[in-house]
Fold each of these.
Amino acid sequence: MSGTSSMIVAGLTAAALATVGFLGHQAAANVPPGLRHPSSGAAGAVRKALPAKEHPAALPVRSGTGKRVVYSLKRDRVWLVEKGDTVRRTFGVSPSTVDPAPGTYRVTSRSGAVTGSDGVPIEHVVRFTGVDGTAIGFSAAVDGSAPVLDPRERTGGIRETRADGVAMWKFATIGRTVVVVP
């Protein structure tokens, strides 16, 4: 009996596949001529709306040269850039209450694990400047949290995820260029 059931199921499956194939062929053969090729209409406009240079994750123009970290204040985004402007990794960050001025800096110090100015344990701290006594750098909260910003407190920790923190730690060694863009 199970052999008969299997044959019936196999036959019905084959018939269904043949029907779907036939209907697909019929649909393709009967496409109106105006729809056979992509037009320059809406789909073309979408492609043109986001050229590579304007894509939210695209490397900012005038962001330096060579192997570097690029930090965009406006986009709250970081790029780890190899020579030749090849982006190794890009990711969003949570900004601090104190921003560095746009410009070119160098990584000045690193700490494997410390407590942030907000009292949260952080790791993979990569510092590159200071503003009026507030150290500015990238870090990841050990618990994975984003900072709760109080504009009345001066903090310089630009928070990233733990995975992004590991990538930054490996890439941004002492002396590595950090370019801050608006």
Amino acid sequence: MTGSVFNLLSIKMGGRELSLPALIVLVCLIVGTVALYWGRQVAQYSRVETRNRATNMTPLFAARVAVFAQAMALTGALMMGWQVAILVYQLGLTGARATWSPLVDTLCALAGGLILLVCGILVENWCKIPPNDDEPGGGLTEAAPQPGPLGRTSDKT
């Protein structure tokens, strides 16, 4: 909705359409490949058997990869939503235009957003800590009570 409103305002004021260029697919492929590589390193680091294969991985870097993956998935979803709004606008103009290049650019940007979304979700899932099967409950244990005013739930008199 917002994408189509901003696009319409830009066109009405004499500007260009707010679609991303087709080169964005290449950028999204590069970013997705880097994220998949680091996500695979985090997945290897999270298992004790394969930890020695993840040479330069630390817990802090693994957390950064997880945050990057989440940001990448959200960016891909936002980019796809924006480009779908532009695509609807482009499809309405196909009969009046002599060229297909704006529609192709929009479809390429939509594909780039899909690449970011899928790679981000995959890497997010790879960054999850597997449960410890040796403990009862699959690694989930009782949490220690929290000190302070928020930790007290029943001792208020």
Amino acid sequence: MSDPVAVVQQYFDALAAKDFAAVAGFLADDLVWHQPGGNRFSGLQSGAGAVNAMIGAMMEISQGSFELALTGPPMLNGDDLVAAPIHFTAQRPGADLGQDGVDLLKVADGKIVEVWLFSADQPAEDAFWGR
């Protein structure tokens, strides 16, 4: 499948279903992931393995409660960039996280090759994940 919007839709469907094997299948081996903020996950992640490990750590910290879902249809921006409006939530003892954001994903040859994330309240997300 090479339609960028369809790739992104199926990626988010897999995330919502917590089907992490399917999620991994949408990520290019040389993926570049821009994680915003000033928390333990912030910064540049290089490679699908690093991103999969980061998602696993988020699930561990949130005791499996981390969820992310589209709030509207993904929108093509140019030939290969897709903007996706999202909402994500997570809980851990003593803290709850829930906010909107926009994920911008670059797709090539049916795989997600680069991702930029934008959260509505980055300080709250930083506080939840910690340093």
Amino acid sequence: MELESALHAARALVIADLTAGGVAQADVVSLVEDSVVHRRWWVEQWPDGVAYVVGLIAQDVQDALLERYGRWPLCPVCTEGGDPHALDIEPALGTDPHWVCGKAGVVVAAVGRLDTALGR
């Protein structure tokens, strides 16, 4: 896949998940844009990494949100008692990334399809 197409697709998928989670405000979307710029440079250095940009951009945004606002996306599987926890991206560096609940050991949704898991 061409670099720009991959970056635009990754951007759209992550913004879809942010929208599904109700956190797609302008300042949060700016975090996506920052990650896209960084990952563009990263893939220019390692062209084989283009297949991994979706998961990496999702992880970048998740990390940036944790630093500024808190955990995202919260797990919709483990809703009974206990502390709310964020979903993880698996594989950490691979193709076809998914949001997973590490506690329950289940795949929740593909990146870009969080709306299905959240019932939206």
